[in-house]
Amino acid sequence: MAEIATILLSPFLQVFFERMASGEFVDFFRRQKLSDTLIKKLKTTFLTLNAVLEDAEELQVTKPLVKEWLDELKDAIYDAEDVLDEIATEALQSELDAQFQTTASKVRKLSISAFRNSFVKEIEPKIKEVLERLETLAQQKNVMGLREGVGGKSSDRLLTTSLVEESDIYGRNNDKEAITKMLLSNDARGNKMSVIAIIGMGGMGKTTLAQLVYNDSKVKEHFNLHLRVCVSEEFDVSKVTKTILERLTSSTYDNKDLDQLQVILKEKLERKKFLLVLDDVWNKDYAIWENFSKPFISWAQGSRVIVTTRDNEVALVMRASSTHPLKELQEEDCWSLFAKHAFYDGNSDAHGELKVVGRKIMEKCGGLPLAVKAIGALLRTKPNVDEWDKILKSELWDLPIDEMGILPALRLSYKYLSSHLKRCFAYCSIFPKDFSFKKDQLILLWMAEGFLPQPKHKTMEEVGNEYLLTLESRSLFQKSSEDKSCFVMHDLVNDLAKSVSGEFILRLEGECPDEIVNKTRHLSYFSKHNFHGLKKFETLHKAKRLHTFLHLDMSDSDWFHYFLSKTVVDDLLPTLRCLRLLSLSRYKNITELPNSIGKLKYLRYLDLSFTEVQRLLDSICQLCNLQTLRLSHCKKLTALPRDMWKLISLSHLDITKTSIKEMPIHLGRLKRLLTLTKFIISKGTGSFIGELGKLVNLRGPLAILELQNIESPNDALNASLKDKKHLEELVLEWNVETHVPESPRIVLDGLRPHTNLKSLTIKYYGGKSLSDWIGLPSFSKLASLHLQNCNYCNSLPPLGQLPSLQYLYIVGFDEVVRVGREFCGSGSSSFKPFGALKVLSFRDMNKWEKWISIGDENEGVSFPQLENLSITECPKLTGGLPTHLPSLATLKIYKCPQLVASLSRTPAIRDFWVGDCKEVLFDELPAGMQMVNIGGIESLPKEMIDSNGSLQELSINGAINVLIMA
Questions:
Q1: Separation of alpha carbons 480 and 166, rounded Å
Q2: Are 637 and 658 within 8 A, CB to CB?
Q3: Domain that holds residue 618
Q4: Is residue 178 part of a domain?
Q5: How far apart are CA 387 and CA 214, in angstroms?
Q6: Considering the entire predicted model, what is its pTM?
Q7: What 8-state DSSP symbol labels residue 718?
Q8: pLDDT single digits (tens) 880-937
Q9: Contacts of 731 (CB under 8 A, 6+ apart)
Q10: How far apart are CA 407 and CA 405, in angstroms?
Q11: 49 and 190 both lie in a single domain
Q12: Angle between helices 23-31 and 64-100 (to 10 degrees)
């Protein structure tokens, strides 16, 4: 077995072979008396095929017959995986029967035994059929001219030191200066659209250059509004207009047609100097461009549009006033970029032999930054000159850039991925171009498809995280510029994934010409406002062995889902018996699933989030393989099935924003559960808090609700929160309508979490004081704290002692009269209270009269990093705000009619919002103030204008006195 483990296996065969060799399968084969000869022949055939797979993968690019042979092999392996899953499910069901049927009658046991014998009779012919297909393919390898032992081992180790950086830019200073000059010029075109087009082939760095210009401080100061939108291949005028409007206003416009959207956008742009970046534009239809540009006639003179495109004809259609062709990197800039990625210390001089070969490899990249980064990241994993020389001499360099525009350097990057990584990467072709995906989302998809191994000392989720970071380090994934928590793939990388995944993965989008075929195993789609998509789904009957049905659209297209849900839920689901992953997210008209859902026995991932589902049938509890169940924002869902405890493979249960009233019984039996977003304490029925204590591996966010239902205060200890070191976010919530004055403090004491916690929220707590553990410096990772409507508490804990606290929100502490120095806590002579705090908000403090804070020059500065201070609806507060807030940028005071605020040392303040308070005193008005919003004042101090050349916005309403002290 050790010898077999050392052989490089294909991404398909390695996963399959590891499962076959596992102890559970070997035991099951012996127990069910499956033919040993059959299993041995299957292993031998696998090894025969594996010996030529490396050569086949390389030759398929230029030899269609080899590609056809390889596709047939992948199809056979998919069928083999289905057989293997059938065996695995039977083995798991046997385990369940042994565990939960101990009291079954003798008749029941005999029935189960008969069923097992029937299963063996059914599965052996399926194994023989798969074996015959594989043996036929193995016999054809010589006809194909496939050679054994071609290629070397690949590395999939984590490369945490070479993650892509935004500052990873070389040789573009002149380009940046040229485009910046165009943007800031006084070229008078009235209100007409002034377009600057950046033109260059894929991988040249057009998007990076546009981002570099967009983020320049001089550019941002020059324009009132600035926005970047990725357009991609389909220029959907409604979609792009809606995206621009939503980002400008932070509002949603789901129910607006194009005419309404354009009218609103025109109003928002009125007399504003606007910079709009349209990234990756392909549209050559002048009528579409004219239709899109209608609202922009209202913007101010000097507004600009930057367009990035591969096609000069696009620039002509858009009537670009200036074009900037982007050229290849110069040799030395190219080498600097290459060296940064290829050498761990970035110093090529310390690696003489590698430097010589590296120069030659770099020349083959043609000055394209994407190719240089990808090949450099690949070479970083290969520290000896022989491996570099092998890559230099690879035949893949001689291939022309194909019709999809795939660069040889990217094909090499794929070739040298490990087997597991190849399959995970190819799967990502299921995402449309420019699609942003979250790390946790992708890992759960990989897990559901069976792509992640299960090592002894790691979870599959941890393995998936390593895989994702490795793909990022190879420049195959990159952080989204819109959301740093998300990842995207460059268009050319997406094309590469599509190329290697072939017809096994299909995404339906727009007028997609691809057809569903019997080899299709993974399907994704976006909802489109036409019936073309519905016609595509009518051909899904061809894909009887579909593994994935994934809905990726974030829009709510009610009419489309109405028709589609009937096609999918009523007609297709009963036929798709091989599904591993099913996403029906945002199907608005689904109220419940059919009973046939229980027959999808291989299903590992089920997403019903944002649907109208009202209940889950008991048949869902038959899905013994189910790993992920997503029910978030199912607002009409009031209960979970009683026998949820039978889902023994369940790892992730998301019930955020549901109306579930209680948890089902025996939930503590779900030993594999890692994610449980909400746990409701039952009163008399359902699960008690002790069940939560049995879930020892919980991580991520957890909300514990209805805490008043804990029968004995000491029972809170049974939740064992102190032992759950992987929990990151915790919400503790009592019922707002229930007040239990004696016990909450003991309950809260018992709910003390592990000190690894990063976010804590406490709501509707009824005790007179909070527990001593809240505010302990040992909670060194706590960054966010919300204390809400603890209306009987008469004091605040020493929260200033929390060393990492950045966000603090205190709402509804009706009994607090005085906030004193105890709020800051105590420490060493160098101790700075609230040393990391950035945002502080007090609201609805009805009896609060005085804030006694530290912070004068003798005692040192409290709140040294505070950027945002908000005090609202505190009617009795008279004063005591900290006077020395060196980092304060935004101050908001609202409905504090008795407050006299003296702000003597706030040099960084920029935004000042005050309404309905007594007085605000400044020693001098900060010179950098940009926005002032104050209550209806009788006279505005002249100094507020004269001393402030940077003031951009002034709003006056309400009643206030603003004094500038001499």
A1: 10
A2: yes
A3: 509-628
A4: yes
A5: 40
A6: 0.82
A7: G
A8: 888 788 888 888 988 898 888 777 777 788 777 887 777 776 666 666 565 666 653 3
A9: 701, 702, 703, 704, 705, 760, 761, 762, 763
A10: 6
A11: no
A12: 70
